[in-house]
Fold this protein.
Amino acid sequence: MGNALQQLLKGRGLASLSAKEALILQMLTGKSEMFGLEMVEDSAGELKRGTVYVTLNRMEEKGFVESRLQPQGAGEIGPARRLYKITATGATVLQGHQNVASSLGLAWSGGRS
Amino acid sequence: MKNLGMSVAQALGSVTGRHLAVASVGTGAVAFLLDVYGHDRISNAAVVTAVVLATLSMVLTAAWNGLQLIAATLDLVRARRGRHVVVRPHGSLFLGIVSIVFSTKTVERVFQPTVTDTRYEVNDALAKGSPKVKIFFIRLRGYYALAMALLPQAVLSLLKTALGKLVGIR
């Protein structure tokens, strides 16, 4: 998805969606819940482990995803894993962007360059 | 072993050592008085007794301290074997430091998951019996990820602070 499309979407009042955000939303659409490292491994180098949680934090603030802490087993120490899932808003935004891209005849890359 | 050591130490050192020291001082005083009143032979015997008692007192006190040291060492060895170890989770020091600088939300949503991922990876590698070198590289990758997470947050934080100050001035 190019910059021209991003500008067009912004002009129409649609929530902006970066390439990485689109990729994460697309991955989350296929699965019920995922954690950050899982996304990094599935993205084939598109997402970096150092920045994935920064992106997820931003997406959570926008309301595209929601998270919960994975329950820990007895004897486990340290912070629990955070699981993410797509929200209705996230799914709508992704669908909207895919629709706009297809109506304009642009190939939807799903954030993959 | 530790309790026995402590009991012996107390029996020998704490009680007897002090008694001997008191007895030594007492005998020394008696020797002095005997010397003053001209009972040289008895005085000399008392001096020797006082010196012996003082020496015994010192030896027993040293033994008591030594046994205490042994007991503490045994305690440490037991702790290292994992029976009384208080384990600090990996990354807790880092999280403690960043929580001073960044907001709780940023720590919970950005740094904590990164630390947790590394911890899980390390635990998986340990469970599989991976070589230490591999575990070292997993940790190294984790530290790099943390640095990469830290950098944008630090820049963002600085920008926010600078912007806040500019707006405040104007």
